[in-house]
Design goal:
Elements: E1 4-8, E2 14-20, E3 23-25, E4 33-35, E5 40-42, E6 45-50, H1 57-62, H2 70-82, E7 85-90, E8 111-114, E9 119-120, E10 131-132, H3 138-148, E11 153-157, E12 159-162, E13 166-169, H4 173-185, E14 189-194, H5 199-206, E15 210-213, H6 219-227, E16 231-233, H7 236-246, H8 251-273, E17 276-277, H9 293-299, H10 304-311, H11 313-319, E18 332-335, E19 351-354, E20 357-360, H12 363-371
Parallel strand pairs: 1-4, 6-7, 7-8, 9-10, 11-14, 14-15, 15-16, 16-17
Antiparallel strand pairs: 1-2, 2-3, 5-18, 12-13, 18-19, 19-20
Length: 375
């Protein structure tokens, strides 16, 4: 006898769905019906740029090159779930061992799409962290990664500051385009770290799927990215956190602040162009706290409605994932107030269902299951 849920989305659309194990199904027969239409439902919050291997940059850099502490990663995955994050894109690590998280039961973690070990040239990222790959080696290295791991994403570091030079590209546009073509041929997506000028435009022209940070995207870049429905994860809170670490008067701080000013100019334009703008924690915000990015998106020119969509449904659309229909994962995160009117509501879930299991159950759920009555 399946339980049936009645849900209401942020836009007021109503759904009536039965719980069939870990999936939703069409309601049939008798069984308890739980009416949750007085709450506001989303398929889950989405962290589109996270790293399950650590909770901050020093911890991430301290991890062993070949070992991932799966117990710690499971705790971080639990923290994501407890924050209502039911879909996460892990954008890479210093070891492919993190991909073991894909083998965990789905009810114990968010839905995951993961990159494995990050690619960068010598001196092009933190020491001893990435797979060290030169411009001429990048295409072959990406091919090997696609054939040898379960990673759904390839993560490339597109630029990095050099002493006495400042931020500089790590790869040529031709090398990036070749790597993207190989990845796409294997059914993988490509994400690129870029915080400096020039490289965002190179990455967009090369066909990269997701621009991470992308502080210096141009209006023409977002137009081109929008035409192919590409993704952009500006990670505003994380960028502001780096400015705090470096100091606003440092060369790096000044560069990022200049880039953030550019983000404020092009963010509304990117949505209008059709870019899938997404949100991420990037080990500056804690795991499970991606909703804190919402007020930053509003501060940078978006409405609460737009920010709420970016933090929830936009990620599912970008990845082509079905929600709130028969055969989809039985996931929902619930709120008392509508985040469309106040995006800070996303920081306070009152109900979290992951693959048919309640992690946080509204009182109505317990009462309905005790009485087992039809409504």
């Amino acid at each position: 006898m399946n339980t049936t849920l009645r849900l209401r989305t942020l836009e007021g659309t109503e759904h009536t769905l039965a719980l069939d194990g870990e999936l939703y199904a069409a309601p049939v027969g008798s069984g308890p019906v739980i009416d949750l239409r007085h709450l506001w439902a989303v398929p889950g919050l989405v962290d589109a740029h996270g790293h399950l291997i650590a909770n901050n940059t020093p911890d991430m850099l301290a991890t062993h090159e070949e070992i991932a502490d799966i117990a710690t990663m499971r705790r971080y995955a639990e923290a994501q779930l407890d924050g209502g994050v039911l879909l996460m894109l892990d954008k890479g690590s210093k070891t492919d061992a993190t991909l073991a998280m894909l083998d965990l039961p789905e009810v114990e973690r968010p839905a995951l799409e993961m990159a494995g070990r990050i690619f960068a040239p010598a001196t092009g990222y933190f020491p001893h962290f990435p797979v060290t790959v030169s411009d001429t080696e990048l295409e072959r290295a990406v091919s090997t990664a696609c054939e040898g791991t379960a990673a759904q994403w390839i993560k490339i570091v597109g630029d990095w500051p050099r002493k006495g030079i400042g931020p500089a590209p790590n790869y040529t546009e031709d090398a990036l385009a070749a790597a993207v073509a190989v990845a796409h041929g294997h059914g993988r997506r490509v994400a690129i770290h870029t915080m400096a000028p020039d490289v965002p435009s190179m990455a967009v022209r090369a066909g990269v799927d997701s621009i991470e940070h992308g502080l210096f995207l141009t209006a023409s870049d977002v137009e081109m990215l929008g035409e192919r429905r590409g993704m952009w994860v500006p990670t505003i809170a994380a960028m502001e956190g780096i400015v705090d670490q470096l100091g606003a008067d440092s060369s790096g701080g000044r560069l990022i602040l200049r880039g953030l000013a550019n983000v404020a100019e092009i963010l509304p334009t990117a949505l209008e162009a059709g870019v899938h703008v997404l949100a991420g924690t990037d080990i500056v915000l804690p795991h499970g706290a991606v909703a804190r990015e919402g007020p930053r998106l509003v501060e940078y020119g978006l409405t609460d409605r737009q920010a709420a969509d970016i933090l929830t449904s936009a990620g599912y659309r970008a990845l082509g994932k079905d929600v709130f229909q028969a055969g989809a994962a039985a996931d929902v995160t619930l709120f008392v107030g509508n985040p469309v009117h106040d995006v800070t509501e996303l920081q306070h879930p009152v109900g979290i269902l992951r693959r048919g299991k309640w992690r946080l159950a509204p009182g109505e759920v317990s009462a309905a299951l005790r009485t087992v009555t039809d409504r």
